[in-house]
Predict the 3D structure of the following.
Amino acid sequence: MAMSDRHASLRAALRRCVAAPLAVAFLAFGTASGEPSRAFAAAPSFVSEQVFSVGFGKIAEVYLLPVAIDQLALDGLKGLTGIDPSVKVERDGSTVRLYVSGTLTAEFGAAAGNDPGAWAALTTRVIDRARLYAPVLGQATPERIYQVVFDGVTSGLDGYSRYTGLQRATTERAQREGYGGIGISLEIVNGRTLIRDVLPRGPADRSGVRDGDQLLAIDGDLTTRLGEGEMRDRLRGPTGSVVTVTLARDGSAPRRIPVRRERVVPGTVSASAVDQVGVLKVDRFNATTASTLRDSVASLRQGAGKAGLRGYVLDLRGNPGGLLDQAVAVADLFMRRGRIISTEGRHPDSRQRIEATPDDIIDGQPLVVLVDGRSASSAEVVAAALQDSGRAVVVGASSYGKGSVQTVTRLPNDGELFLTWSRIYTPAGYTLHRQGVQPTICTSRAGQEDAAALLSDLRNGRAISMSQLVGWRARAADDEQALARLRETCPWKEHEPELDLKVALMLLAEPGLYQRAAALSVVNTVAER
């Protein structure tokens, strides 16, 4: 999808990597039983020093706060105990000691200062040495070792910084950025492999593959001999390559269909029209969310014909977030002017101020945004930008409160390191961190289960104005009491989901009432950033 240079630069800033490996000397000892067993002797550099070097270097460069790489590296080495409890790593001044089953096995000179490359080299050498003497660790795969070490490293950061191994990272990348495939899902029913969710106008759809077809073979190999994961992997591959699927339907003769793979990005947007209102459900934010949303609005408008639509509902309930640049682009679809987001961090590239461009795909028509306690991160960015600018009325329950941005670094082993590098601030100047977005019309308070009664409060001036929340928001980052009062204004809890949509539809049916709610949403900036 084409993006503005401003949005493209933000995304590019999230993907830079660094590496600086250095050598570290060590002194090894024999164990009480003599030399290590050949059965568990490790080949040199069993794990990649470069993986640790890139990871440690990225933490030192971009993490939100200054870090002590030496302490993080030691935390990572202590994570080896999670694989083999006999392994213990300690530091004593300038010496790092390795113990196996209580016996001192090796001593290493601690890396100098906070040098990521030097600590990466030392981490690699300690692991290789430990594998010589610890049988359980010696049998562990490199991926398992990377996982426990980086789990230990990121445990000293914040709750959103994490490492994901090769398999999970591959799946998450496919969800975010797409993959080479044919645009189908699979479902196993009574031992039969059925085609589901054929992507409209995708490679499989254009080749005649239909929902409900039975998949008999992939490139001639029977699916009865393949696991579900293996089938998925065989259907995916480089864009431009061809895979041949053998299909049957309703007892008809099998047919072989060659399908050329293309870049497939999982769908995140669904659209429908209810009572002359366009309802847009966004499940998460990936590489094509904004462009798909634009197309969905165009389709709804075309389908409405001369009667037209009287407004729109943007449903972000249950949306856990995703790509920040897509959240910015989605908010920008509906805003002609004003601040969308500010971010602040230690790295210069993490400090962003992004303003809306003069475009609104629904031409200023009324817009209601639905959120709940599972709406997080990028979903909160969109809701807050539209609420603070007065462009939309937010309905539902207080959102999750994930107010930080993570970089995603692809490591040399194809795992991924997520690091928090900035805090998010809304156009009104408050941080989303822990606070979340408070709806203008709350549907989650006890005893509030009637849509008409909720709108009656608004009609009679009993709704809470956003300006009443400003004081609590300004203090909530450091004041637990202010945070509690803020969150209590609209509890973060599950409630009847149909109530949110009922309120939205009724609000859009009364233009004057909608305008009153929109006016309540606008607040003055509480802190210039």
In short: The chain has a mean pLDDT of 86. The longest strand covers residues 416-425.
